[in-house]
Amino acid sequence: MLAKKAKPKRLLIERLEGRFLLAAVLPGFDSHTLPANDDASTAAVDLGFTVNFYGVAYSQAYINNNGNITFGEPSAQYTPTALTDSGEVPRIAPFFADVDTRVGNVVSYGTGMVDGHLAFGVNWPGVGYYSEHTDKTDNFQLVLIDREDRGPHDFDIEFNYNQIQWETGDASGGSGGLGGTPARLGYTNGSGDAGTYFELAPPSGSFLDSNHATGLIYQRYNSDVDGRFVFSVDNGAVKTPTSTVVTSDHPGGSVYGQTVTFTATVAGTAPPGTTMLSTPTGSVDFYDLSTSTDLGTTSLTPGVSAGAPSTAALSTSGLSAGTDTIVATYGGDANFLSSSGTLSFTVNPLTVTIAADNQTYNYRGADGNPWPTFTYQTTGLINGDTLASEGIQSQLAFYTNATPQSHVLLDAGGNPTGYPLLISGPTQSRDYNIVYRSGELTITPAAATLVLTADNKAMTYGAGLLPTFTYHATGFVSGDTGASLATSPTLTCAATAYNAAAGTHSSPAGTYPINISGPVDPDYASTSYVAGTLTTAPARLLICANPATMVYGAATLPSSGYTVSGLVNGDTQSAVIATPPTLITTAKAAILGQPESGSQVGSYAIHIGNAVVSSNYTVSYVANYLTVTPATLTVTADNQYMLAGAALPPLTVSYAGFVNGDTAASLAVKPIAKT
Known about the structure:
By secondary structure, the protein is mainly β. It contains one helix and 51 strands.
């Protein structure tokens, strides 16, 4: 067995007729040579691996100078015979023509590696034609590539062409390497049976570099390199390569959940210059590469005519949103190789709506129910999807500016309305665009009736200020107080106070309602108001008897009069006292002719009362005293006469000033006259 060589580099650039081309002929495969000759062959040469060529296993081949190799026996045939004939030796011919290497370059061959696979190659590197002509040379190559990776003894046949300047030897009717019976290329198992051979035998000049339309260096087959023809041998037979193209009935893409039909068009690829005579059969498997999902397998529908492409269609509604890579893989059949095609297909997300449910909460939980648990409704999910399966549910969040202590919210019309209840989360999942709809959290009034009662107040007639009106409330829940009211109630009363500067007078004594009005607390089902009473009490009027004096024995009692204090509200005494008070004293005046009828010296009470005054006042009386002062009594010693030495005459006195019928006898102590 020939020694293996390192994997050759395939990317070689060659200049041809002023143009740069990717060189088809691979380097290497030149560890052995076929000596210069005309129509000679090598002995059987080891390939380095075994090939199955139409049911026969070969591990050796004969290298024939005239542009071909054969199995089983060498071939000296120089004028190319039809590869379609029966009785032919099994042959693989990249350029079956009369090569003459007695001058110029010789044929080389050997083993190597191609794309990681064992390979055996034969080079015809710029060889001339019979007879010993090198004015035109051809550079071509045959490579057999082991493909045990596909199946036992599978292999590829590769024809590579870098330069084709001649096509015929002189002995084949050619002149100057042209005309006559030109070269053929292809393969045969020698039986002539249909499906066991392939041949290109076009008119003279077709293979030459000078023919830019059909020249071999410009053609390609089952390859992306000009000048390279690749034939895949699968399970012993050369199979036609195929191409698979995937299309859809929604070229602009679809929406998640929409049914889409993918069509795989499988076409056989005929070698250059030939036409397809059969169509692929078998089945196509559709696969979503993006999600690693097998979509299913469908059978091919044969083309309507020989050689026409076959098609397979598959409908699905299970594609995930996003850019899906749909791979359609044709499995091949007895005559056609497998192939795959891809389609980048966009599935647009479907819109799903998540709406927060409206909620209610009785003010401060007065009905005993707890703060609500927020919930939502979802519309738009399909295919059994859930928010959990889409990875959304765990990211949902609610927000409201209401709290368990919030008040009932009213709209412009005074009706209870809701606080915004927002829901948020991801705006996209794998398959959906997500739209959120807010709800409302409505706080409903407590069922209790809130009673606001004005407190009773009192003031005195004539006061300069009204009292501060206050109220108290009953029916509050959960710790509410008057401070909880958004607006304090209004307390009013018709009563007025005295203000001299403003010229206003106090309301008369009596009772006046204290009215309460104002906010209807929306936090409660109803609010009632209870008026209070302002009682204006009469002012205190003090009437004091004036003190009086009289002299003992006076014939008349003095008029003491009285003094009034406590007038308010700008009132005058005359306006307030309708009937003056009565003044009474126990003292008595002296009555003429009635001894001791007048009061003795001393103090006697003056009683006062019975005044009729305005109802705006209550009267208090203060008594006083009438003081009886002593009358003046003049005692005069009477003049007396006596003689000298005579006894003293009785000494007597005279009185002047007795009143009240008094006489000297009335004196408890009489005066004594002395001399």
